[in-house]
């Protein structure tokens, strides 16, 4: 069983860096039905490396708190709020840069293996969630209300599921130490998230200076 767990974990690590940087799951077309909205919502958080990596980080940090099943809801709720802000034409400046920075930050925190308490963890989830949700909102600009609601339900559900699964895999199945700081699975996964964040952040910085698209 340990070898099987490690094989599954290796597969996860392989999948994470290969996730696309896409930000519009319907190929540029806003969903016009509840079914399309729901499917788009399920897809959006996992087809973009920046969003997926951060959600995995949410699961890792939440697993280090006393409320591993409730803490991710702070992030999920904030993403819903961020999408609504976008649809209300409220501007969040430098959203893509903040998202990239949030991925690097949450990876570093998870890599440390420390529990930072609800103030730091919850604050990071809430602030970053607004920006991630703001980016999600672009996919449903122009959609009918039914499609928007289904979209919100879809991405809320998939984000929560991925966060809980990531925390469970890293801590329960692959943990080798008695403390979080000794937990091999959690810290390696945090390192992968931090690495992905560094790549995304580097791309954003190159774009700012006009060296990348």
TrEMBL record:
Segments passing through the bilayer: 38-62, 69-88, 94-111, 118-136, 148-171, 192-212
The species this protein was found in: Aurantimonas endophytica
InterPro entries with a match to the protein in the record: HupE_UreJ
Keywords: Membrane, Signal, Transmembrane, Transmembrane helix
Name assigned to this protein: Urease accessory protein
Keyword Nuclease on entry: no
This protein's record includes keyword DNA-binding: no
Residues spanning the signal sequence: 1-22
């Amino acid at each position: 069983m340990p070898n099987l767990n490690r094989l599954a974990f290796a597969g996860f690590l392989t999948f994470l860096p290969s996730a696309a940087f896409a930000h519009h799951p319907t190929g540029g077309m806003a969903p016009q039905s509840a079914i399309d909205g729901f499917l788009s919502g399920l897809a959006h958080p996992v087809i973009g490396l920046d969003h997926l990596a951060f959600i995995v980080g949410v699961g890792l940090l939440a697993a280090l708190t006393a409320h591993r099943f409730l803490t991710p809801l702070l992030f999920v709720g904030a993403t819903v709020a961020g999408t609504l802000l976008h649809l209300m034409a409220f501007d969040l400046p430098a959203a893509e840069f903040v998202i990239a920075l949030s991925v690097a930050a949450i990876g570093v925190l998870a890599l440390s293996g420390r529990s930072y308490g609800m103030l730091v963890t919850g604050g990071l989830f809430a602030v970053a969630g607004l920006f991630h949700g703001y980016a999600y909102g672009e996919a449903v600009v122009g959609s009918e209300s039914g499609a928007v609601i289904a979209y919100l339900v879809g991405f809320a559900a998939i984000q929560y599921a991925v966060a809980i699964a990531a925390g469970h895999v890293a801590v329960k199945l692959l943990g080798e130490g008695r403390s979080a700081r000794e937990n091999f699975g959690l810290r390696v996964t945090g390192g992968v998230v931090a690495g992905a964040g560094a790549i995304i952040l580097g791309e954003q910085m190159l774009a700012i200076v006009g060296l990348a698209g």
